[in-house]
Write a structure and sequence with these properties.
Elements lengths: L13 E7 L4 E9 L5 E2 L2 E4 L4 H21 L5 E8 L2 H4 L2 H13 L4 E2 L8 H7 L17 H20 L8 E5 L3 H12 L3 E5 L3 H11 L2 E2 L12 E4 L8 H6 L4 E2 L11 H8 L3 E2 L2 H4 L2 H7 L9 H25 L3 H15 L2
Parallel strand pairs: 3-5, 3-6, 4-5, 7-8, 7-10, 8-9, 10-11, 11-12
Antiparallel strand pairs: 1-2, 2-5
Helix pairs in contact: 1-13, 3-4, 5-6, 5-11, 5-12, 6-7, 11-12, 12-13
Bound molecules: nicotinamide-adenine-dinucleotide.
Length: 346
C-alpha cells in the first residue's frame, strides 16, 4: 500500500500500523507533527471500506489536528488514530486495552482521546494500560460548553468584522443541529438578543430550544433558504457546497461542525460572494483548549481554560483582516497562520 507518495502524506513523523491477534485490533496511528509538543488527537472507530481509506483518513485528520492545535496556541502537535472495524461488533475491554498498550509503546509521542464511536468509557479502558490519553471523565469534564463559548465569540468576531460592532440584538441566526454544543450556543445567542431559527432531526432537541430560547423551528432543508444574517452549522460536515452556497442569504457562516466546506474551493467561492466564513477548526477549538488544561502546569482550571477560549475572538479577527489584505479566503489564511506558528513556535 502506498503511503509516502499519497497527496495526503505531509511528512508525517510516524505512521504506525498496529495489530493484536487476540483482541482483533487493527489500528493505524499517525503522528503528523510533534514540533510544538506531543501529538494530540482523538481515536476514531470506523468500518472503513478498505485499508487505503483508513490511511487516507488518518493522514488527513492528523495533519488537521496539527493545524488546529497550533492556531489554538496549544503546546501540542497533531496526531490521530483509527481503529478499523464495526463499532457494534468489535468493541471489547481486550481491544481497548490492546490499543492502550500500543499508545504506551509510542512513549508519549501521541496522546489519544475520544472521536467518532469512541466514548469516555472506551478511553478509560485504554487508560488502564497507558497514561497517554486525554479527556477522561472527571478531569476537564464536558468540552461542549467551551466549544459553544468559542463559537459564540467567533460569531461576534465575524459580526464585528462586517458591521463594526458586536451587538447581536435582533441579529437572525440559523442554527443547524441542536446537540450538546448548539444548545449552549443558543443560550449565549438568546441572552445576547439574537433571534434563533433552528432545525434538528430530533424533535425533542427542537422543542427544548424553542421553549427555552424562544426559537423558531424550521425544516431540515429549509435552513439553507432563510433570510438570516448568520448560518451556524452545528451538526454535519460538508454542508457548505455548490448547492447550499447558491441558496444561502446569510453573509456569515460560523458554527462548530467539523469539515464544513465540502471542498477547499468552496472557501474561495464564499469569499467571492462576500460571505464571511469562520474556519471550522479555528472557531470550534474550545473543546481541545479545555482538554489541554488537564495537562497544564498547576492542573485543570476552568477559569484559565475560559480565558484561553476567549482568545478565539482575536484569532478569528486576525484571520478576517488578513483575508481582506491578502485577498485570500479565510480558510487558506487559517492554514497559513498555522504554518507560521508551527515554523516560529507559539
Ligand atoms: P451532538 O451529537 O450532540 O449534536 C449533533 C446534533 O445534530 C444532534 O442533535 C443531531 O440530532 C443533529 N443532526 C444530525 N443530523 C442532522 C441534520 N441532517 N440536520 C439537522 N440536525 C442534525 O454533537 P456536538 O457535540 O454538539 O457536536 C456538533 C458538531 O460540532 C459535530 O460536527 C462535532 O464534530 C463538532 N465539534 C464538537 C465539539 C464538542 O466539544 N462537542 C468540538 C469540536 C467540534
Amino acid at each position: 500500500m502506498a503511503v509516502f507518495n499519497r497527496v495526503e502524506f505531509d511528512n508525517h513523523e510516524q505512521v504506525v500500523f498496529c495489530s493484536d491477534q487476540e483482541s482483533g485490533l487493527k489500528a493505524i496511528i499517525a503522528v503528523h507533527s510533534t514540533k510544538l509538543g506531543p501529538a494530540v488527537g482523538g481515536c476514531r472507530l470506523w468500518d472503513y471500506v478498505s485499508d487505503e481509506d483508513a490511511v487516507y483518513d488518518v493522514l488527513r485528520l492528523s495533519k488537521g489536528m496539527t493545524y488546529k492545535n497550533a492556531v489554538a496556541r496549544l503546546p501540542f502537535g497533531g496526531g490521530k488514530s483509527v481503529i478499523i472495524g464495526n463499532a457494534k461488533e468489535i468493541k471489547s475491554e481486550a481491544l481497548f486495552r490492546a490499543f492502550g498498550r500500543k499508545l504506551e509503546g509510542l512513549g508519549g509521542a501521541y496522546y489519544s482521546a475520544e472521536d467518532v464511536n469512541i466514548t469516555c468509557a472506551d478511553v478509560a479502558i485504554m487508560n488502564k494500560e497507558t497514561n497517554y490519553v486525554l479527556g477522561l471523565e472527571g478531569k476537564s469534564g464536558n468540552p461542549s460548553p467551551f466549544t459553544a463559548l468559542g463559537t459564540f465569540l467567533g460569531i461576534k468576531a465575524a459580526y464585528q468584522h462586517q458591521h463594526g460592532h458586536q451587538d447581536l440584538a435582533g441579529v437572525k441566526v440559523a442554527v443547524q443541529g441542536l446537540g450538546a454544543v448548539a444548545y449552549s450556543l443558543c443560550k449565549y445567542l438568546y441572552e445576547a438578543g439574537a433571534s434563533l431559527y433552528v432545525t434538528d432531526i430530533n424533535q425533542a432537541s427542537i422543542d427544548r430550544v424553542v421553549n427555552d430560547f424562544n426559537a423558531t423551528a424550521v425544516g431540515i432543508d429549509e435552513i439553507y433558504d432563510l433570510d438570516v444574517d448568520v448560518y451556524s452549522p452545528c451538526a454535519l460536515g460538508a454542508t457548505v457546497n455548490d448547492n447550499t452556497i447558491a441558496r444561502l442569504k446569510a453573509t456569515i457562516i460560523a458554527g462548530c461542525a467539523n469539515n464544513q466546506l465540502a471542498e477547499s474551493r468552496h472557501g474561495e467561492l464564499l469569499r467571492q460572494k462576500g460571505i464571511l466564513y469562520a474556519p471550522d477548526y479555528v472557531i470550534n477549538a474550545g473543546g481541545i483548549i479545555n482538554v489541554y488544561y488537564e495537562t497544564a502546569p498547576g492542573g485543570y482550571s476552568a477559569q484559565a481554560s475560559t480565558k484561553h477560549v476567549e482568545g478565539i475572538f482575536g484569532t478569528l479577527s486576525e484571520i478576517f483582516a488578513r483575508s481582506v489584505t491578502e485577498q485570500k479566503s479565510t480558510h487558506l489564511i487559517a492554514d497559513e497562520l498555522a504554518q507560521e506558528i508551527i515554523a516560529n513556535g507559539l
